[in-house]
Amino acid sequence: MVERRRFYFIIGLCLALLIGCLAEQKVDSFASADRYLQDKLLPKISVAQALIPDRVAARYTLDGIQDSLPPLEQFPLYAAQPSSNPNIVYLEIFSSSEKANLKKQNERWLVEVAQAFNQQRKTINSGQVIQVGVRKIPSGTAVRFLTAGKVQPAGYSPSNDLWVAMLSSQGVKTIPIVARLVPNLGGFVVQERVYRQLAPNGEVNFDRLLDAIASGKISVGYPNPYSSSTALNLLYAIFWRAAGHQADGRPLTIADLESPQVKSVFQGFQEQVLITTTTTLDLQEIFIRDKDKLQAFPLEYQNYQQLKQVPGFEKTVFIPFGIPHNNPLVGFNWNTSEQQEALQKFAEFASSDTMQKLARQQGFLETDYLFNPKLPPLPAGEVLSKAQTFWKRQKDAGRTVYLMTVIDTSGSMEGKPLTSVKEGLRIASQEINPGNYLGLISYSDRPREVVALAPFDPMQHKRFLAAIDDLRADGGTAMYDAMMVALARLIEQKKANPNGLFYLLVLTDGQTNQGFVFQDIQDVLQYSEVRVYPIAYGDVNQKELAAIAALRESSVKSGTPETVKELLKGLFQTNL
Amino acid sequence: MKQLNRYLLTVLGLGWLSFLIAAILLNQVFAVPNFVLLIERSYCPPQQWQQVVQEYTKLYRQHQQLRIEIESVVLFNDLGEEVLAAIPTPEELRAKRTYGRASSQREAKLRTTYEQFKIIRCF
C-alpha cells in the first residue's frame, strides 16, 4: 500500500515537472505581454545605463539647430539639363510628383510635355531656343527651398494653389502664367462597405463623411500636411467647413481657427485619425492590410484612377473635398524677360489640345466637382501657415504621445551613416510638442539607455542633444534586446496613462546578430499596444521589419544617409 | 331556439363592441404622450452638456416608467443628423461628442419631418 502511494506520488511529481517545463507562458493580452517581458525577457538582457547627466546636458543650447534642406540633387531633373549656351534660354520648372515622376507611366505628363516641347526647338523673339527641364519635387518641399532663397527656378507648378498662397505670404513674389495646367482634385478613398452604411441617408458628400468621422463612426489616416498637397487641402477643407463658410462663401480666417466650434470638429476628426504618415504610399499599404481599422484616406483623383485597378481597391468610392488641384504654373520676379516669354510659350504648348489629350490619358480628368459653384475660395497664405501650426499643436486631441527612439550604433554605422542619423535626430528634435514623452536607447552588442523616457521640456531636449552627440559606432546588432528595453519603458507609462499614444521608432542598418531573435519577442510586441516604426537603413531583413510594422498599423520606412534627415523630421513632425 | 341564439349573439357582440369602444376612448383620454426627441449636438462645453444630459435623464426615466414614449432620438448639428438605433442611456448620451455649429435650417427641416417632437439643446 505504502509502495503504491509512493509510486503515484513520484508519477504525479514527474508529470507536474514535465508540464511545468513544457508549457510556455502564453502571451495573449497586454497584461500577459507585460508579465512575459518582465519575467522571461528582461532578466536575460544586459542593459548599459549611460544616462546623460544634467550637468552635461546643461552645456547644450537649443538655439543653434538649423533645419537644413536636403540636397537639391536628391530631386531628379528630367528633360533638358541646364545649359550655358547663349543661344538657349533655359527654364527649370519645379513640379509636383504626380506629373513629373518618370518612373511611373501615368505620372509623367509634364516631363513628356517638356520633352515634346524641347524637340520642337521653339524660339522667343530674340531667336534663342527654349529648353525646359522639369524637377520632380514635392510641393511643400519646394516651398521650403523657395522661401529659404536657396534656389531660383524659372517656374513652379505645385498640385494646388495653396502652396502659391503660402509662398506669397512668405515674401516670394510669383507671377501667374497659367491658372490650370491640368485638372485634378483631392478626395477621400472610402471602402464601399462604409459608403453603403452612409448612403441610405442621402448623397454621401464631404459634409456627411466629415460628420461620420467627427462623431466617431469612421477611422481615417492622412499624410503630413506640411508636405502633402492633399493633406493640406483636407486640413483647409475641414477648417473652412467647420467655420460654416459654406453658407457665406468667404475664405477661412485666423480668427476662425480659435473658435470652439472649429476646434471641436477638428478634435473630433483627429480622435478618429488612426495614423498620420509621411507619405500616401504608407496609407495605401495600411488600408489594404487593416481594412477594419482604416476605412478612409485622402488621395488625388488622378492617382485614384490607377489605384482602382489595384487588387483590394476595386470596390472603393472617391469623395472629393476642398479646392480644386489646378496644377497652376507660376513664374518668379527673378526671371529675365526672356525667361518669362519662354515660360509663356511653354504654357501655351502645355495647354494645346494634343497635350491636354495626353493629360486625360494619364488620369487628369475634369469632373463635375470642379464645376461646383460653391467650392471653398483660396485663403491667405498666413491662414494656411497658421492651420499647419494649429494641426501640429492639436493633432493628438489632448492625448500624450510617448516615443522611445532606438538607434543602431553597431560598427557598420561608422562614418556617414551615423553622422546623418545624428544630424537628422538633432533637426527632428525641434518637431516635438512640449509635454510629449521622449526617450533614447542606442544598441550595438547590448542596449545602452542614454535618455530616460520623460516629458519633453528644454532640459529633456538638451539631454537628447547631448546623447545624440555621444553616440559612437561599435560592435554587433542586438536590436530586439534594445526594443524590449524600450518596450518595457513604454509599457510602464501605459499602465499609468492608458489613453496615451505609444510609439517605438527603431532604426537598424543590419541583421540582428546578438541577443533575442524575432520569434522570441513577436507575441510581446503584438500585444504590447505599442506601434513600431521600423527604419530600414541598409542591408536589413526587410521581411522581419515588415512583419513588425504589420503588427500595428505601420509600415517600413527605407532610409539612406542622404534621406534619413527628412525621414526622421517627417516622423517626428507627424507623431510627436 | 334560433331566436335565443340570435339574442345571445347580439348581446355578446354588443358587449364586445362596447368593450372595444371603451378601450379606444380610454386609450385616447389617458394616452402616453409619444414623441421623437431631437438633441442638438453642436459644440457644447462639458458642464453645459452635463445639463443637457440631466434634462435627458428625466425624460429617459419617464420613458422607462411608461409615462412617456420616446419613439427615437435624433442628434443633429450643422454637419449632419443621426437617428440613433436605440434609445440611449444617459451614460451613452454623455459619452457622445459635441462638435460643429448649430443649424437653424436643419432644425427647421427636422421640425417638419417629425410631427411630434421635443428638442433639447445646450444653452
Strand order of the largest sheet of chain B: 3-2-1-4
What is the average of the pLDDT values of chain B? 88
Low-confidence spans of chain B: pLDDT under 50, at least 5 residues? none
**CATH class designation of the largest domain in chain A:** Alpha Beta
Mean pLDDT of chain A: 87
Beta-strand content bin of chain A:
15-25%
Sum up the overall morphology of chain B in one term.
elongated
Taken in chain order, the helices and strands of chain B follow as HEHEEHHE
CATH topology of the largest domain in chain A: Rossmann fold
Rounded to the nearest angstrom, the distance between the terminal CA atoms of chain A is 72 Å
- What portion of the residues of chain B fall into strands of 2 or more residues? 15-25%
CATH superfamily of the largest domain in chain A: von Willebrand factor, type A domain
The total number of structural domains of chain B is 2
Backbone structural class of chain B: alpha/beta
Blueprint (SSEs and pairs):
The complex is a heterodimer of chains A (576) and B (123).
Chain A: H1 2-22, H2 30-41, E1 48-49, H3 54-57, E2 77-79, E3 88-95, H4 109-120, E4 129-136, H5 139-147, E5 155-157, H6 161-169, E6 174-178, E7 185-191, H7 192-198, H8 206-214, E8 220-223, H9 229-242, H10 245-248, H11 254-257, H12 260-271, E9 273-277, H13 280-289, E10 296-300, H14 301-307, E11 316-324, E12 329-332, H15 337-350, H16 353-361, H17 381-394, E13 401-408, H18 416-428, E14 437-443, E15 447-455, H19 458-469, H20 479-496, E16 501-508, H21 518-527, E17 531-536, H22 542-550, E18 557-558, H23 564-575
Chain B: H1 2-29, E1 34-40, H2 46-64, E2 69-76, E3 81-83, H3 90-94, H4 104-113, E4 117-120
Parallel strand pairs in B: 1-2, 1-4
Antiparallel strand pairs in B: 2-3
